[in-house]
Amino acid sequence: MAAVAFRLGQRVHAAGDPARVGTVRYLGPVDGHPGDWLGVDWDAGAGGRHDGSLAGRRYFVAAGERSASFARPTALSAGITLPDAIRNRYRVEEFTKEEQDEMYVFSSSQKRVSVELVGKNKVEEKLKNLNDLTSASVSYMGVSSIGPGDELKNLVPNLRQLDLTGNLLSQWQDIFSLCEALASLEILDLTNNTMENDFTDSSSVKNIRVLVLNYCGVTWELVEKIKVSFSCLSELHLMTNRIKAMMTPVGNIVQGFDTLRLLNLEDNHIDSWDEIVKLSYLRSLEQLHLNKNMLKHVTYPSNPPPLGSLGDAAVLPFEKLRVLLLGSNQIDEVLSVDSLNLFPSLTLWLSTPILISTFLKDVRLSDNPVADPAKGGVPRFVLIARLGKVKILNGSEISPRERREAEIRYVRLVMGKAESYDPEEIKRLHPRFAELKAFHGIEDEKPSSRTSGPQKMASGLISITLKCVGPSMGEKQPLTKKLPPATTVGKLKSLCESFFKLKDVKLRLYLEEEGCPMPQFFEEDTVSLMELGIGTGSTIIVDEES
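Structure tokens predicted for CAP-Gly domain-containing protein:
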């Protein structure tokens, strides 16, 4: 095959290896090497030898220092059509020798015995007629074109879900032809196909509900064009596209996407919450996935657009949002946590006097500094108490008992610090404190003038249970002790050594919390039980350092 059979920008794969995919960046001679050559910039992980230069001469600029190489035309493949890929993947006739051998086992006398597969005939009969195929995956099979539309339509007319991950598609005209040929298609996965941003077609695609464009080199300018053609999307996945900003054609609000319920922007380069606010008026949006970006804070939009600019003055920012994933960002302040309480709820009145509310109920903050006590963040119980509406935190459901214990502990924690701040400062730093204190009926500790000495001291003690779990500590019964709230972690460790008669063991203490996937160890020996929010009825686990 001559180099003229290829074009610049064309997606190709190594001959015999459809998983090794790259883009043609150069066509022509190479000094000192006769014949036709193609310069290929291989996708991440596919390997290469240089950056597009050889022997001191630059032929093209590659994405990485060692992502490029030169290859003969015969060493590359321009791919196959989608119908051919489907037949290759789902064929049931003309098995290779290796595939035939897998259908037999050898008996003790070394005779080949056919393996009878349960339902095999039924499956074969079904696949002979691909009309019944509703879901297909042809990932990494070198698909470069859709082929004749009628051929695809007649081959799999009832296909509803198609996975095209890691193929050679790049032109949107092919995608429009595909959607037109497969009228039943609803879910289309184009992950790892480098799609061109030159989007000039004005076709209208009504059948696609879920569009996956992860690792496709998509820009937000392209997304603005996609929403016009794919006007009925309920899910749009845009992971790992290096998106940093939402460039909108008019104003600072992303409009359209009237049916979009889920938007996945994970693992991009978004570092400003102002960019996310541009999405706040997507009226059907219920789930927003923002894990693995570079966000530093979260706020609820306080300046809505001018009346009428969205055609409905009554619309609220993030009106239907109930799932917000913010894991692995750079959020380091609890004020961002508090702001999540401002996201509106969706309420439904029934005929009976019962109010059912759907809140922003699923939040992920894991791998953010604010959720890591070791980095100056706060433990899980503080997050739960501050997030009054959340039902699931960091993938773990919050049970009613865990919420109650977390809120009571949080109130005690704030009360332990209240003497150092004036009431207004407490209200600013802990917006839910007064509400939770009243809800759980927790009263301020008032000194009694009628008690003194031992009686006064005893009235201020807290009762806690200590459980010893260290593997080298031996079996020990739990102990319940009354201690002053001012007891520090370091002092409690010393007391545990005495209570449980432990010698030469370095202790670690943590609170037993229902539903907490990871224990929150008490790291600082100088912190008191009151400052940790620990009160009567708490159980502290006594473990040993590993």
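The two ends are 63 Å apart (CA to CA).
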